[in-house]
Amino acid sequence: MSCISRYWDQAKVCQCPLCKKTFQKRPELQINRTLREITEQFRSMSGGERVGGLEKKRGGRGGGGDAVIPDDLFNELRNKFPRNVTTTKAVPIVDNPQSLEEHLVQSPLVSSVPNSSPIATVLSHTSSQAPPSSNCARAGSRRRFTVSGAASSQSASICELHNRGIMIYCRTDQLCICPECELQHHQDHDTVSVTEQWMENQSQLRLSTQKVQDMIGERMKKIEEIRTSVSKLELLVEKETAGSVCLFSALVSAIERSQAQLLEVMDMTRRATQHQANAIIRQLELEVEELRSRESALHQLTQSDNYVHCVKTFANLSVPPPTKDWSAVTVNPDLGTNGIYRTLLVEVEKFQEELRNAAEKGFPNSVLDPTPVRSQPRVKSVQEYAVNVTLDCNTAHPRLVLSDDMKSVKCGDKHQLLPDNPERFDRVVCVLGREAISSGRHYWEVEVGGKTDWDLGVAKQSINRKGKVEVSPLKGYWFLSLRNKNKYAFRTEPSTDVHLNMRPQKIGIFVDYEKGQVSFYNVEAKLHIYTFNDSFSECIFPFFSPCTNKSGKNDAPLIITPVCLTHSHTL
User: Fold this and answer.
1) Which regions of 415-535 does DSSP assign to beta strands (E)?
2) Of the ranges 163-177, 285-299, 306-320, which one carries the lowest mean pLDDT score?
3) Does residue 328 have a pLDDT over 70?
4) What's the pLDDT at 49?
5) Average pLDDT for 85-92
6) Residue 401: enclosing H or E segment and its boundaries?
């Protein structure tokens, strides 16, 4: 190394003395420690002597005083260095160790390297005759030979720091290292060969595999447990749903039944009381009329000068006419609803008891038992609930013109002289239907073709009919509007725009009072347009507004048409 270093210090270029390869950058020389170890092993062998640079050993091949290679070392060298290493012209492959030794003695390379053994020369020359990309070029991946073979083998791992084969495992740092790393950084550590460490790890491999399998089994068991819990939960949900539906449906049915009875009883009571009051008032009016006649006769006596006539008639006039004692007559204020309230109270108490049992014990399994199959009613078309709707002229705005059959309405040019009764709208050009809706299902159709603006739907009885009217479900209006021929909207807060691909010529309105639904249909296209979902607490009436005539542009009427059961709007 000192010779090459001095030569390179004096020369202008760095050139390999053996292969004459020139380097652009001066390589960094390193000691081939593997070659040094093999050489030292030769020198330290006992029982031999150096003869012509070769070691002679008794009992080896060739016999006598000839320089021989021990059989065990020759076999080790053949195993460590494959044939492709000796493919250079300098050292051909020979099977006989004696022939190999003789070839080395005759080689000019051996004679040019004083005091070196033939085997060391072979290794050095073999390494030096390797391709430049794997030997002399320091910038490339230098090829090193280790005890286990070429370090650049594809199956071997190379230390990035020393370009040596990684064959040692440091237990202290738990790292795989090369021999150079062991000498520099792991001298006092617990180190073994990688093979030995892996053989030791293999004994733990089965335990690790079994542990992983046990963990997999536990998690699969947990997955099955969770799935079973979900299945049980689904059954509980089904059971709870069935029980709660039965429980609350019974209460809702009782409330709805009681409400219907209350409305009916109160309406009957109102009518009966009104009839009774009218009869009493009629009798009182007759008596008042007779008393006023008697009063007039007495007043005439005061003005008469015919005393004889006054004396004769006063006897009859002074006695009051026969009348009824009205002091104890009153209108019965009892509405007759106490019995209905008591019945509903019993139902509510029953519901509370069942609700308490459900909260404490849950619903019984019987709610999930199969019940006898009941024949389901066929799906009905909404047209099957058609009703005869007519217009109420007492609610019509003064500008509205109604037909004689009360089936159509349009807006006129001027106000009509009509009584300003409380039911009449005085600002909004609209009219209500005459038929009240307080239960059940109802359907009617209105022809709207030819109009640019209109409003259709339902309104509750207690809506404000005077002055400015706010139209929205909160104010008791549920209807569909058309503006400017093509803008459809539902009067919600804010308005809900509806985009219709086909302009309807006839609108169908369906009301389900119990469900609180108001639905609209395009009759010709057989299409559902929109459904309001709300709740009704009082009577509602069909609502119609032809809107203003816009100087004749919107002069066409709204016409209530007969329902033809040929369409398929279903519930």
Assistant:
1) 431-432, 441-447, 454-460, 477-483, 487-490, 496-498, 506-512, 517-522, 527-533
2) 306-320
3) yes
4) 43
5) 40
6) strand 400-402
Cα angle 356, 359, 362; round to 5: 115
Q: How confident is the model at residue 76 (pLDDT cuts 50, 70, 90)?
A: low
Backbone angles phi, psi at 515, to 5 degrees: -85, -10
Rounded-to-10 torsion of CA 482, 486, 491, 496: 160
What is the mean predicted confidence (pLDDT) over 188-211? 88
Residues 6+ apart with CB under 8 A from 455: 430, 471, 479, 480, 481, 482, 491, 543, 544, 545, 547
pLDDT of 92 over the 50 cut: no
Tens digit of pLDDT for each residue in 97-124?
A: 444 444 444 444 333 344 444 444 444 4
Per DSSP, what are the bridge partners of residue 432? 543
**Which of 468, 454, 369 has the alpha carbon at shortest distance from 425?**
468
Q: Are 177 and 168 in contact (CB under 8 A)?
A: yes
50: pLDDT strictly greater than 70: no
At residue 30, what is the residue type? Q
258 in Cβ contact with 339 (< 8 Å): no
CA 362 vs CA 230, 248, 252, 371: distances in Å: 19, 15, 20, 20
The β-bridge relationship of strands 175-177 and 527-533 is unpaired
Total residues found in the chain within this entry: 571
Contacts 24+ apart (CB under 8 A), 413-420: 413/549
Q: What's the Cα-to-Cα distance from 100 to each of 36, 71, 109, 122, rounded to whole Å?
A: 21, 13, 14, 10
> Could you count the other beta carbons within 10 Å of the beta carbon of residue 445?
22
